[in-house]
């Protein structure tokens, strides 16, 4: 399961960064095209956090819209779908963001 692996990775990173502190909150930035389900990530996060210093931590997910660069005219295009067409009519788009998953913030006590 895609989300389980991601959740395991997030827990590994935040618990390592926290050291002996307890993780209370994690803010995750997820691209709209990362193709993960927020509910599923929440569930897996809770499961993976059990028994670690991130147990009971709150996970917040921020969705980031996709952006692409048009290779034909150089314009930046905001995309809601993992494909699209530039205003110039070209579909030759290079992804800039949209499929990334990163830890934006974390809080420890
Ligand atoms: Zn264009």
Key traits:
109 residues, alpha+beta, hypothetical protein PF0899 fold, three-stranded mixed sheet, 2 helices, 6 strands, 27% helix, elongated, binds zinc ion
Short description:
By secondary structure, the chain is of the alpha+beta class.
Unreliable parts: none
Give the ordered list of helices and strands. HEHEEEEE
Beginning-to-end CA distance, first to last residue? 31 Å
How does the overall form come out from the CA principal axes? elongated
CATH topology of the domain at 2-65 and 97-108: hypothetical protein PF0899 fold
How many separate helices? 2
CATH class of the domain at 2-65 and 97-108: Alpha Beta
User: How much of the sequence is in beta strands?
Assistant: 25-35%
Radius of gyration: 17 Å
Secondary structure: number of strands:
6
Strands of the widest sheet, in order across it, are 2-1-6
Sheet/helix structural class: alpha+beta
Largest sheet: 3 strands, mixed
Quickly give the CATH architecture of the domain at 2-65 and 97-108: 2-Layer Sandwich
| Helicity, as a percent range | 25-40%
Distinct ligand kinds: zinc ion
Mean pLDDT: 92
Write structural notes for this entry:
It contains two helices and six strands. α1 (2-18) crosses α2 (38-49). It has a domain at 2-65 and 97-108: hypothetical protein PF0899 fold. The chain is elongated. The chain has helices at residues 2-18, 38-49; strands spanning 23-31, 58-64, 66-70, 76-79, 93-97, 101-108. The protein starts with a helix and ends with a strand. With 109 residues, it is of the alpha+beta class. Bound molecules: zinc ion. The site of zinc ion (ZN) has 7 residues, from loops.
């Amino acid at each position: 399961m895609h989300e389980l692996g991601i959740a395991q990775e997030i827990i590994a990173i935040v618990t390592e960064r926290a050291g002996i502190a307890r993780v209370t909150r994690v803010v995750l930035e997820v691209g709209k095209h990362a193709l993960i389900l927020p509910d599923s990530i929440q569930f897996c996060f809770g499961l993976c956090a059990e028994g670690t210093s991130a147990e009971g931590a709150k996970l917040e997910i921020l969705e980031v819209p996709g952006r692409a660069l048009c290779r034909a005219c150089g314009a930046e295009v905001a995309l809601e779908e993992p494909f699209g067409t530039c205003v110039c009519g070209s579909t030759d788009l290079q992804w800039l963001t949209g499929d990334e998953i990163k830890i934006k913030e974390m809080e420890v006590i």
